[in-house]
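batch job 7 of whatever, protein = Multiprotein-bridging factor 1 family protein
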Amino acid sequence: MNAIQCKMARAALGWGTRDLARNARVSPDTIARLERGEQLKCSTITAIRAAFENAGIEFIPANGGGPGVRLAKSR
């Protein structure tokens, strides 16, 4: 997950940085650092990604068009 994917996923969910921080159990400053492109610990990225995935976000790999996100289909 990169900074752009983080911003896109937040927008898709209608979440602010505080919403994401609360769901990922990290500080809002950590989210701001990620979105500025700073390096974070792998465990922190994993927690943020898990929060997004639990909320229904799917991460799309770079497949010629660049990495992205989408809302998962309802099961």
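notes: The longest helix spans residues 42-54.
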